[in-house]
Amino acid sequence: MEDFWIEAIELTQSVIDGLLFGSTYALIGIGFTLIFGAMHKLNMTYAAASIAGAYVGLVVFVFFSAHPLLVFAVSSLASGLIGLLVYLICFRFIPVNNHLAALMATVGALFFIDEVIIHITNASPLAFPALFGAASFDLGAVWIRGDLLFVFAASVASTAALLYVLYRTRLGLATRAVSQQNVAAQLCGIDVHRTNATTFVVAGLLGGIAGAMTAASVGVLSPLLTLPITVKGLIVTVVGGLGSIPGAIIAGLMVGAAENVFLYLRGVNERDIYVLLLLFVFLVFRPNGIFGKSINRD
Fold it and tell me: Which pLDDT score is estimated for 293?
């Protein structure tokens, strides 16, 4: 009986840590969702830009001994700028109806950014500053890490700010109009290219925060983070439903919790196998995702 309670406590601890860390996956998923919702195209460079922004923040920390909060802010701004460059290079001058060309351009940009990081850092992992890393809060038999609690709070604040921009500002109105019908939006006087570029910047700002928080949570920043975050972001986007921000939020928390539970039950070698199996289950039984709209021939 005692062993059962120990297992239950450990499993509960894994779920709590996974939910808190899953908020970073939610932010990455929201970024994918924003761009897909605006242009109906996937930006495979998104996670790489997020990690690159975190590296810029780390440079500020190393050379200027900046406060971790400033590091997070610089990471976000740098990722937003990279997002704008990605839009100009990979989307702006490619025909709107050529989805494959835009997709392959972003795949090429992903590898380019990854290679630049590898050559600059010699592919070596670097220590990344964390906020409240030594703090913890006891809740009976389980405890909450202070850094993960900060990650969760920052994710909630970023998501709330994004929802305010989308539903309470002219930019949000323009973004939703372009997403629904870009021709009608142009007829109403909306600059589609400027709106799409701004959407990439906003998504990049979120991605920079997510990249910095991911590095702060694990304590290191490495080029090896790019591919896993890209894959997890795509899983969150599909599970939540393409174009659904609430779906991305719920799916991000779900994937984070599931990943940590699988890590506890099956170990690091099999963790990602079961996360991909979760994606397969959704594709088979609910292909449109949690909040995705039904797709028909019309």
Answer: 63
